[in-house]
Amino acid sequence: MDISSLYKIFTQHPAVTTDSRDVTPGAIFFALKGINFDGNEYASEALAAGCSYAVVDNPRYATSPNTILVESSLKTLQELANYHRRKMRTPIIAITGTNGKTTTKELVYSVLSQEHNAIAPEENINYAIGVPLTLLRLRKEHEIAVIEINAGKIGGIKELCEIAEPDYGLITNISPSHTEKFGSLQNLINSKKELYTYIASRKEGKIFVNYDNPALREMAVGIPSIYYGLDSDHDQFVTGKVVSSTPYLVFEWKMARKFHTVKTKMIGDYNLSNALAAITIGKYFGVKGEKICRAIEAYEPDKRRTHLKETKKNMLLIDAYNANPASMQAALQNFGQMEVNNKVLILGEMKELGPDSNNEHQRIVDNISQYDFDKVILVGENFNQLSPQYETFSEVEDLMDYLKKQPLKNNYILLKGARRLHLENIIELL
Q: Class for domain 307-429, per CATH?
């Protein structure tokens, strides 16, 4: 079946699922494959659960009149999403970067929703499956779409751009992360640059660029760009500065000499650039300053990311969702500058840094000494191998045993580490 014929079916049944356990009546089920599963095996279950059709790529499972056999279910899903995107013609903003892309995406969506019927991914679904699923949620009433894109290989962002065909692009930042997959920082930079390159090929494409980032500025040369950043003498579109961040970020921004102050529910002055990006995009698309401020002040970050939690024993600053060198340094700096007493730092190791791992962890250890922390605890083999001057544990379980015997009380504690370490498991002991 060609894509145009499948699209006719989609217009009659405009819901798509890849999970036979999560079915909207009448949806089209796409049988995708993973490392430990084959969606083809669940095609009949999806139909029995209420799906109108099941798209499969194994003839063994094309046993029902309502199964559609294709060469690749994933490729067909992507082609259908691209076909639909072209039919809708909705302006699309694509966001990528090492850190802050999900927060920025949510802020941009919140701001744009003040004036426009906008759409964005409900979670951080930003790879080869999630992007098509977001595109297939587009409807005629949507005036603008915000998508998040990511890739684990060179050429991956280019492939996603060819599916989504974004008109606007934003790279939040680029720093060492997942270099084990890319081989080097330069390869990672080249991967992110694929977004700029694609936008440059669009007839009226534009990118939003953080002027404070020299690498992004250099990559943007020759591409229609709109800038934002800290206060300076440069002719940026939007500028801003931190007023305070103990612990919640308060900042001031201005455009055309008009000042606004925003009191956010976000922790960390590193979120200023994310907020300025959303403000810049909002202003570009005609959202008034007062509504922009209102949207950012109302935004509440996902509890899985940086958030404040008061227990019976301590005040916790929890950021155990992800960790890479840039986010670690930002968290250290922010925590180090906070005007609170009895600061305890609990850091978990970083993952997927490849041959750079030892140096990056050593750099974190060296930087800790710049700040006046009352106690420092490091977790993970990458830290343990360095034999630093701080208390170090190979596993989270070892730290949990320690905390049971020597509980921490009346402290302000930062927890920061890679998601796979499950540092959040110690919260019940704090």
A: alpha beta
What is the length of the chain?
430
Locate all alpha helices (DSSP H) within 178-321, ordered by sequence.
179-182, 185-201, 214-219, 272-284, 289-298
89-298 belongs to which CATH class? alpha beta
Residue range 305-362, pLDDT digits in tens: 678 888 999 999 988 777 888 888 888 988 988 888 899 999 998 887 877 888 889 9
Count of other CB atoms within 10 angstroms of residue 255? 18
Asked if residue 247 has a cis previous peptide bond (ω within 30° of 0), the answer is yes
Tokens of 357: 């791992």
Give the Cα separation of 128 and 196 in Å (integer). Answer: 19
In the chain, CATH 3.40.1190.10 sits at 89-298
How many CB atoms lie under 10 A from the CB of residue 226? 18
The residues of the chain that CATH labels 3.40.1390.10 are 3-71
Q: Which fold has domain 3-71?
A: 3.40.1390
CA-wise closest residue to 116 among 286, 339, 298, 358: 286
